[in-house]
Specification:
Herpes Virus-1; alpha+beta; Znf_FYVE_PHD; two-stranded antiparallel sheet; about 10% strand
């Protein structure tokens, strides 16, 4: 966008309220023709909205979001193939299924976390199918990263099992340098809650003492 276009978008968003939290400043509108529902991106999960992170980056409200056509095969235990906790017995916004094997079920939050970790190696955790599985997940709003799996990049940088030990913030404010870390306080090192492959000092990313999780710019 040009600067003028960006300002116009900001002005228009300021006039619209989010149908999830009811606060103003909703910049995302459902792509369905005739639907005027708007929402904030952080509110999308609570409103069961879908944003597709490819192509035209289309967004949909809960009523018009894409639905998985495939149904999960019946089985005795309805558990997530990733976290092993219980999932719904049917496909829904929060419970998804692999379109290839129709046997792997997972929470949306679990498959999203796996997608960020796996990068270009993202595939079904059960049948290992990649192409149809990845296409389906993208359509359903799962965000992917075009990078090697986090476990491979972490292993290349440091020995297996060794914790990441430097601040990767764009500007490190620590007078002792990026490698310095303390048990608590402004120079406590926080690791990315998704990949654990990058870190930041608490002060370098303006994290408060009550901030329990932080994600790097890649995740």
């Amino acid at each position: 966008f040009l600067v003028g276009d960006t300002r116009h978008i900001i002005r228009e968003a300021a006039k619209k309220s989010c149908f999830v939290c009811y606060k103003m400043g909703a910049s995302i509108t459902c792509c369905e023709t005739g639907c005027d529902r708007t929402f904030h991106l952080p509110c999308a999960p609570d409103g069961e909205c879908v944003t597709q992170y490819f192509g035209a980056y289309r967004s949909f409200c809960w009523e018009h979001r894409p639905q998985q056509a495939v149904q999960a095969r019946p089985r005795q235990e309805n558990t997530c193939s990733i976290c092993l906790d219980a999932v719904e017995s049917k496909v829904s916004y929060k419970t998804m299924v692999c379109p290839a094997c129709q046997d792997a079920r997972f929470h949306r939050c679990c498959i999203q976390r796996l997608a960020l970790h796996a990068g270009i190696g993202f595939r079904c955790p059960c049948c290992l199918n990649q192409e149809p599985f990845m296409t389906e997940m993208l359509t359903m709003g799962i965000r992917l990263c075009k990078r090697p799996p986090s476990w491979e990049s972490v292993q290349e940088v440091r020995p297996l099992g060794q914790r990441h030990g430097r601040c990767d913030a764009g500007t490190c404010l620590c007078p002792e340098g990026r490698e310095h870390m303390e048990e608590e306080g402004p120079w406590q090192l926080r690791l990315c809650s998704s990949c654990a492959a990058e870190g930041t000092h608490q002060r370098c990313s303006s994290l408060g003492n009550s901030t329990y999780s932080w994600e790097c710019s890649t995740c």
